[in-house]
Design a protein that fits this description.
The longest helix has 17 residues. The chain is elongated, with a radius of gyration of 19 Å. β7 and β8 form a beta hairpin. It is built from one helix and eight strands. The protein is mainly beta. The strands form two sheets. Strands 1-3-6-5 form a four-stranded antiparallel β-sheet, with no helix packed on it. It has a four-stranded mixed β-sheet with strand order 2-8-7-4, with no helix packed on it. It has a single domain, classed as Immunoglobulin-like.
């Protein structure tokens, strides 16, 4: 009886974990070299691969130098959405910044990363 219960739970957990509700094209972007004090924006694209509308609950940056912009309306099944991330490029030097995106009904947040190097404006 324990074996049957174990295999039933195993099959149920595999089907739950294998159901992905979204697919990002990429979760990391390198800007390369940026001119100081010239903000740069990158749009991370994703597709709703689930059967229900996908809702972005919140997107938060790890510092005030990075600003995420996300859709406030649900993304329909099969449709694409974007998380736009803007870096202010105020501080000279290399950077790597993370944006945490939390989707409704998805336990694990998605981490988006931008990186690059800010150089002095000539």
């Amino acid at each position: 009886m324990k074996k049957i219960l174990f295999f039933t739970l195993l099959l149920m957990s595999n089907s739950v974990f294998s159901q992905s509700s979204l697919k990002f094209t990429s979760t990391k972007h390198s800007f390369g070299k940026l001119k100081q004090n010239v903000p740069a924006t990158y749009a991370f694209s994703f597709v709703n691969t689930g059967n229900k509308p996908l809702v972005v609950e919140i997107a938060t940056a790890e510092c005030g130098c990075t600003t995420p912009d996300y859709p406030k309306e649900p993304i329909a099944k099969g449709r694409e959405g974007q998380i736009k991330v803007t870096y202010n490029a105020a501080t000279e030097g290399t950077f790597s910044k993370k944006v945490t995106v939390k989707f409704a009904n998805i336990d694990e947040p998605t981490i988006l990363t931008i990186e690059g190097e800010v150089v002095q404006k000539k």
